[in-house]
Amino acid sequence: MAIIPDKKSWIWVLDRTCPECGFTASEIAYEDIPQLLLDNAEGWQSVLERPDAAERPNESTWSPLEYAAHVRDLCNVYRMRLLLMVDTDGAEFADWDQDATAVAERYGEQDPARVAADLLDEAEATADAFAAVELQDRSRRGLRSDGSTFTVESLARYFMHDAAHHLWDVRLR
Fold first, then answer.
1. Within a 13 Å sphere around the CA of 118, how many CA atoms are in the beta-carbon half?
2. Which of 8, 28, 64, 112 is the most buried (most CB within 10 A)?
3. Concatenated DSSP letters of 105-160
4. What is the Cα–Cα distance from 142 to 28, expressed in whole angstroms?
5. By the 8 A CB rule, do 170 and 156 touch?
6. Which of 40, 30, 41, 34 is nearest to 121 (CA)?
7. Does domain 30-51+64-169 have CATH number 1.20.120.450?
8. Nearest to 142 by CA among 132, 150, 134, 154
């Protein structure tokens, strides 16, 4: 059975605690995002060392390896969005189909050690990009194709929830 794409909007996590993972985006200081991201990437290292990292818990749920590859790519996507927003206030984001990417890039067949290393690299580059944003630029806006508007600060918090939630997703596997 194929993975069923998650089509719901998660924008609400900016205003209230996620009932699943417990992440409260509104309580995260922007200045803490880079270190939180690096800590998250470090957390994936032990997950990817598990002998069963490439095994799905069921046919319709990603394996820890697939989640980790997604978070690696998520870092890149959000870094590009951040840079676009800093360059152009009101920038529009291209759509990213994470499920199509997972299939096209064969997340489940990638080498866990390579994904672990690449995730650390992508997280570091993304943490550096968020850390480099000047205070006056944190209110710059970006627009998603579904009409959702982010500031640099809300984008950082939204992104951090995504990465944290996926590490929570694999916590018991």
1. 17
2. 64
3. TTGGGS-HHHHHHHHHHHHHHHHHHHHTS-GGGTT-EEE-TTS-EEEHHHHHHHHH
4. 20
5. no
6. 41
7. yes
8. 150
* Token representation of residue 108: 């489940």
Check if the beta carbon of residue 84 is closer than 8 Å to that of residue 76.
no
* Tokens matching residue 13: 């996590």
Give the C-alpha separation, 70 to 158, whole Å: 15
Would you write out the chain's pLDDT as a tens digit for each of its 173 residues?
Answer: 466 666 667 788 999 999 999 999 999 999 999 999 999 999 999 999 999 999 999 888 999 999 999 999 999 999 999 999 999 999 999 888 888 899 899 999 999 999 999 999 999 999 999 999 999 999 999 999 888 999 999 999 999 999 999 999 998 65
Calculate the dihedral angle through the C-alpha atoms of 76, 41, 61, 79, rounding to the nearest 10 degrees: -20
